[in-house]
Model the fold of this input.
Amino acid sequence: MAETTRHDAWQAGDSYDAYMGRWSRQVAPRFLDWLGAPDGLDWLELGCGTGALSAAILARCNPRSLTAIDPSEGFVATARANVPDGRAAFRVGDAQALDLETASRDVVASALMLNFVPDKEKALAEMKRVARPGGRIGFYVWDYPGGGIEFMRAFWNAATALDPAARDLTEDRRFPFCTPDGLTDLAARAGLAAAECAPIEAPTVFRDFDDYWRPFTLGAGPAPGYCTSLDPEARQRLKEKLHDTLPRRADGAIALKARAWAVKAAVA
Done:
């Protein structure tokens, strides 16, 4: 397994939900408001994860149907449990080779997924293929290069201060294309003309330090995977460094924010 991907453990849906899913749920409705799709449409969601965007689509967009796909069986099982709605069908699938008819969906969307796909242009081309003429495509990814996930950036800053080798695992180094220029250029190469890009922001408020630290001990995702790979003494040093450097409110809460870059395009 490649050094930069050896900590990408995404099968455990509950662990991911504690780490990132709860913040994904904050961003999803903001993205949908910006996307602006009307009611009563057939939706496809790629990389549904634990169902954060799926639940928001069903609650806010009144779709006729939603097909949600993810390569992780663990995520699909968690999404089914989290989103028990008869309009939604969750299944395992590959964004690079969709088992769906051409021009069969009105809206094709993905949340926080594209950076993990090996062939991103192929995935976007597949999104375009299954979209109906006049439909729309929308996706978003975290602003890794700009430090937009402040709780994650704080973790890696502390980790790399103690272990410089951890720098190779950081998301800003692994996903440098997650910028407005990088994303719109990628969309253009996939045949999506006149794509728009905008920031989507949401607060990430942790009740206390334990609420911040515990998800990093569960192993789901690169930073938690790195954390659980450390020996107990090294993990304790990292915990103490974070405890001493994170900002606190008067009530002990840790108030940070998350920013994603969102892209949308119409299908001719």
User: Anything to note?
Assistant: Confidence is low (pLDDT under 50) at residues 1-11. The domain at 3-266 is CATH 3.40.50.150 (Rossmann fold).
